Amino acid sequence: MARYTVQVKTGSFLAAKTRDNISITLVGALGESKKRTLDNFGVDFLPGAEDEYYIKEKTDLGAIVLIRVYKERLPLSLLPPDNWYCSHFTVISPGGATYRFPCYRWIEGFGTVEIPEGTGELISAIPPNTILLKQRELELKQKQEIYRWKVYHPDFPRCLDVANSLELDSNSKYSLTKTVNFVNNISGPGLETALKGFLRRRDSWNSFDEIKRALTFHRTDVSDYVAQHWKEDKFFGYQFLNGVDPMLIKRCKKIPTNFPVTDRMVSPRLDASTTLEAELQNGNIYIADYKILDGIPANVVNGQQQYMAAPLCLLYHTPQDGMIPLAIQINQAPGPENPIFLPSDELDWILAKLWVRSSNFPFHQGLSHFLRTHAFAEVFCIATLRQLPMCHPLYKLLIPHTRYTLQINALARDVLIGPGGTIDKFTAVGVAGLAQLIARDMQSLTYASLCIPDDLRCRGIESLPNFYYRDDGLKTWSAIESYVSSIVEYYYKSEESIRRDSELQAWVGEIFKEGFLENTSSGVPSSLETHSELIKFLTMVIFTCSAQHAAVNSGQFDFLSWMPNGPSTMRKPPPKSKGTTPSLESVLDILPDVGTTANIMTTVWGLSKEPGDKRPLGTFPDIHFTEEEPKRYIRAFQSRLSEISAEIERRNESLPLEYSYLNPKVMESSVSI
């Protein structure tokens, strides 16, 4: 007689329990057990419980490779199914061997679920075990029926085929805790009360002090700093490196022909001993070029035509002042009605900088934020669910970085980027312009631009001092890369095993097809053949879903809640000549109206404030890897992330404006907000 101990762990949150009948079959290398009901005296499967049961068989089943879990209606019960969140099963054999079966998901309805033993298995590296092969095929078939691709827009990366967030399966939805906190963040009574009287006004602000009064519902040290320093050139330049969008600035080797800046124009800002040409050669001149916005039609907001621009901004890095702007041309085509604005133009200079900051709003929200983190993270998530079975080591590696991504993106399509959403109602780009903008970026996007070491080199900004996004980002990339390398080299003993892994190849091929629309000019791989290729691609995926999203998301309230620092729209066209700005207060008639500003404030507040139920990078409460070596790699990864956090905190102590968005302690593991 062989006796097996079966331990079942239920999720620790309130709704995780089930009252349904749970039975199990153990499937071993030498045979399988009879179906046995798991039932102890009292109530089973309560939140956080680890229930233990005993199964007796006449013969030894051998190594346990699979369990079948049956979730069924209780005898004589007429109650509907009661969803159950199962964390994991553990089976201890008569000889003391322990087998762990990670689940960490909701089991819905009535039916049967097969859970493979937790040892990471590559389809190319295991013997052709018919039972496991069949289980993998069945699992992927079921998931591919649940997670289907949809064309939201022909030029966008594909997304999940659901009409709205209510259609998501339970494993894709926010937890109750996160849902309640999210709703409170967006529409809590304190927020509504604080902004009462502002949300529906369509007139201009009376003064900049009135804008400050609207911010009383919440303030941060950074938002206070922004409101105080927004007019300063040094802070304007600083934001291209360490603001909410550090993704546009690049080194300027030659002044563009459509931006006829002369030495005479900028010499007052250069040292007397140098020239513009000399500083170009020295690598101290930089440019922010918003050419991608050129020609995109502006939206109508509250029945009023809005305006957009496609500026060019020349910047100079000095050891004394950091990054400062030298010259701004508000649109791309030079000419007498498109002057080059200079710091000596005083109030006109402030207005020119406002046009640059307004142009950065659609670039940041549409490209740096939505497309290059949210949209691609959804592609990575769906492909992982559809093409990698639970026992695949890359599934175990990636699944923590997909948490809640489908929920937040479905919500985004509902209330942010869809018709009648925030982008449509309160921004100059609107949904039609956003579609054009994303289509353009998809044509020019490169694999290198998604990999921070390559991107920094391509933009020529890898050696800029006081560039904290770069410093912290490179450290985090390196930590992820080291962790990924250990996992890849542990499971893939040869490059042949990479090439022969049909599940891996299907995964990367689907990402190339559905995410990057088979654009070969992007350099994004459609297959992977070597350790280095696989490690780089996996690092890019994890970095995009965690660090990159944190860099362009978490500072939104800090930098954009003070509206003049990031206007979502402009209500009058750009100036065609100098001397058109009679006073600073006069620009309030150009900036967004009161209601538009207040609604954008509430949006950036909700998107910047992580609504609880957080899992910072390196936090893995769900134990998907069961072998000791991967667990050791995880501990090493966590240790390095702790070191990075300490380094960031020490540096920030001496900064007038701290940069903490890439501190692993506060950086979410996935795109979840």
Q: Would you give an account of this structure?
A:
The chain has a domain at 2-117: PLAT/LH2 domain (Lipoxygenase-1, Sandwich), CATH 2.60.60.20. Helix content is 40%, strand content 14%. The protein has helices spanning 130-146, 176-187, 189-194, 208-214, 221-229, 233-242, 263-266, 276-282, 347-387, 393-398, 405-415, 422-426, 430-444, 452-459, 468-491, 495-499, 502-515, 531-553, 556-560, 594-608, 628-652; strands spanning 2-10, 21-28, 31-32, 36-37, 50-57, 64-72, 84-92, 98-107, 111-116, 149-150, 159-160, 250-251, 285-289, 300-301, 304-305, 312-318, 322-329, 340-341. Strands 2, 3, 4, 6 and 9 form a five-stranded antiparallel sheet that branches. A five-stranded antiparallel sheet has the order 12-13-16-17-18. Strands 5-1-7-8 form a four-stranded antiparallel sheet, with no helix packed on it. The model has no long low-confidence stretch (mean pLDDT 95).
Short description:
It is built from 21 helices and 18 strands. It is α+β, with helices and mostly antiparallel strands.
Briefly, what CATH class of the domain at 2-117? Mainly Beta
CATH homologous superfamily identity of the domain at 2-117: PLAT/LH2 domain
Radius of gyration: 28 Å
What best-fitting shape do the alpha-carbon axes yield?
Answer: elongated
Topology:
Elements lengths: L1 E9 L10 E8 L2 E2 L3 E2 L12 E8 L6 E9 L11 E9 L5 E10 L3 E6 L13 H17 L2 E2 L8 E2 L15 H12 L1 H6 L13 H7 L6 H9 L3 H10 L7 E2 L11 H4 L9 H7 L2 E5 L10 E2 L2 E2 L6 E7 L3 E8 L10 E2 L5 H41 L5 H6 L6 H11 L6 H5 L3 H15 L7 H8 L8 H24 L3 H5 L2 H14 L15 H23 L2 H5 L33 H15 L19 H25 L21
Antiparallel strand pairs: 1-5, 1-7, 2-3, 2-4, 2-6, 6-9, 7-8, 10-11, 12-13, 13-16, 14-15, 16-17, 17-18
Helix pairs in contact: 2-20, 9-13, 9-17, 9-18, 15-18, 15-21
